[in-house]
């Protein structure tokens, strides 16, 4: 029995490739992927940064790959996925404590959990929650870590909403703006995405440098 073309495309999706995810699931897939990446530990490997940027780019029609997304629904899906996922991760951490992270066999998750805890201790709740959004893996594990470490729910919710909106809408609109202003930007998509990921790490790098300078200046 033959498999329908649209179903075959979904079954053949590459979850590590942003365009493959978008071609298979469209705007709905953006919300689901962001929810999984920010709310479920099993989603730490998903390409949140590149997915948001590529989706924004595809809203302009600049990427000649037969796929066009609508900006309005995309922004809504991105925001809802990022915010609901983060809140879900926090609630999981509060209910399960650190048990889930303690039992994981993934070296990346363990390293991410350590970095997340360091962020919370070094920069305080508000700044750490916002900064974590821009660091792959850390944005997955910080949410349950915050719940397990007893971060107040109101504090977490406020700053995860602020950080989540800046991250999800910022990257999406960045892709849209670039696709609208540069002809044939699709030819440079991979290096542009790599640059976006590097730029997203700037806030964390700046805070690390600032902390080191302050430590040196302290008698």
From TrEMBL:
Domain annotation VTT: ranges: 46-176
UniProt-annotated location(s): Cell membrane
Keywords recorded for this protein, A-Z: Cell membrane, Membrane, Transmembrane, Transmembrane helix
Transmembrane segments: 21-46, 66-85, 156-176, 188-209
Pfam families listed in its UniProt record: VTT_dom
UniProt membrane topology term: Multi-pass membrane protein
Family: Belongs to the DedA family.
PANTHER family the record matches: INNER MEMBRANE PROTEIN DEDA-RELATED, TRANSMEMBRANE PROTEIN
Name this polypeptide is given: DedA family protein
Organism: Streptomyces graminearus
């Amino acid at each position: 029995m033959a498999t329908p073309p649209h179903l075959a495309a979904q079954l053949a999706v590459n979850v590590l490739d942003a365009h493959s995810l978008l071609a298979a699931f469209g705007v709905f897939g953006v919300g689901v992927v962001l929810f999984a990446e920010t709310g479920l530990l099993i989603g730490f490997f998903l390409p949140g940064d590149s997915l948001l940027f590529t989706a924004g780019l595809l809203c302009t029609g600049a990427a000649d790959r037969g796929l066009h997304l609508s900006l309005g629904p995309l922004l809504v899906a991105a925001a809802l996925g990022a915010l609901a996922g983060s809140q879900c991760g926090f609630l999981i951490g509060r209910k399960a404590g650190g048990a889930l992270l303690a039992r994981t066999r993934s070296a990346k998750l363990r390293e991410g959990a350590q970095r997340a805890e360091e962020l919370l201790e070094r920069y305080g709740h508000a700044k750490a929650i916002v900064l974590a959004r821009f660091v792959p893996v850390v944005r997955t594990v910080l949410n349950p870590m915050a719940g397990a470490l007893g971060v107040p729910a109101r504090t977490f919710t406020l700053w995860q909403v602020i950080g989540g909106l800046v991250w999800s809408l910022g990257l999406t609109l960045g892709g849209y703006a670039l696709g609208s202003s540069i002809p044939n930007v699709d030819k440079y998509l991979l290096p542009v995405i790599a640059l976006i990921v590097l730029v997203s790490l700037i806030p964390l790098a700046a805070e690390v440098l600032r902390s080191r300078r302050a430590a040196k200046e302290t008698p």
